[in-house]
Amino acid sequence: MALSLLAGLVAAAFLVFAPFIPATEAGITGALLCGLAIGWALLTVLSVRFTDQPQRWAAAPALFMGVGGLLLLTAGSAVLEPLAWVWPPVLLALVIWMFLRVRRDARSGGGRALLYPVLVVLALASVGGGYQTVQGAVDSSRAMPGQLIDVGDHRLHLSCAGSGSPTVVLDPGAGMVSAQLDLVAPVVAEQTQVCIYDRAGRGWSEPAMTRQDATQIAADLHTLLEAGEVPGPYVLAGHSFGGLYALTFAARYPDDVAGMVLIDTTPPASTQASTGEPAGDEGAAIGDRLATLVSISARLGVTRLIDQPTPDSVRSTLHEYGQGGASAQEAAALHDFADKPLVVLTAGIGQDPQDAAAHQVLAGLSTNGVHRVVEGADHGGMVTDSTGAAATSRAILDVVASLRSGQSL
User: Fold this and answer.
1) What's the Rg (C-alpha) of the chain?
2) What domains can you pick out in the chain, each with its CATH number?
3) Suppose 377 and one of 37, 306, 345, 388 were both cysteines; which one would form an S-S bond, judging by CB atoms 3.0 to 4.6 Å apart?
4) How far apart are CA 55 and CA 45, in angstroms?
């Protein structure tokens, strides 16, 4: 039994990384299911031919997974959502039936000890998959604020509120969505226009086909703001990785940036110590497959525990961290912010002293730059907790006031 199931895992791993399998969610899921189906089929055949405890029931999960896998491989993403409503209840019913058959046919204690945990995992997968499908439908039914705007090969979500100038553009941290800035955006909107957006694959935005490093993200944001007819120049406020994208945007489009707030930003890399060498074609392909494989766990509801509700959001977040070195290098292209107002915020809790020192250096990019340490707030809390969000909102409005009055911070 153990060898049969192990063979299924090996077959699944081979198919997942086979070059002839498309590196899409449907392709990787289909390959995974076909590999596991081989393991169950082997259990059926080998137990019938070579043991006195035939496990003919194992043909049922082999057929279930094999048919599902082949359907995904042939029909692709078109069947992902319909199958999401079908497979959880069918699998749960199948697991219950399998449990009864194992009790009858697997007479050895070792066989039951091996199969029962597998059945428990399958049962949990069915329950989690059902929950994810229902919750995903609930999420989709919610009204989307703002609009989706075409930026090339995908559309990005943009939502603006308030009135007045300059317009503030908020850039969420790594893996975050615009909705998580709900403690900051409304406060800023009381005094000027503020726009929030979701990066590719996150929130309401569609996934992108292009490499999402800081340069590409800045270019997409520039296109988004132009297509959305949002007047500049802007005050950019970026949290964590969002700070890297704000810095890159300011380096590429200096005339479109009036001021900046870097919210406990990830420090940019020095030009002498680049960690952002792009991976070769083979490395990038393996990375894409690994990211897609991990993202499949979102179909089981697992990643909702870390605020990543969909496979697209998981894949987007993994790619974002994978491009972190390149993004840090690209952000270092901004060497001089002239006398434009710049506030650099550092979280007072859990901050690396080296990062705090880097933040002090960043404040020196402008002759009108200041560095503030926010006591009582950690990295995430700079936008999600009341203390940090209040300090962030105040810093943004200070930059706005400086631009309107012409006075230094």
Assistant:
1) 25
2) 2-141 (no CATH), 147-405 (3.40.50.1820)
3) 388
4) 8
Helix locations, 19-79, DSSP H: 25-50, 59-75
Cβ neighbours for 138, distance < 8 A, ≥ 6 positions apart: none
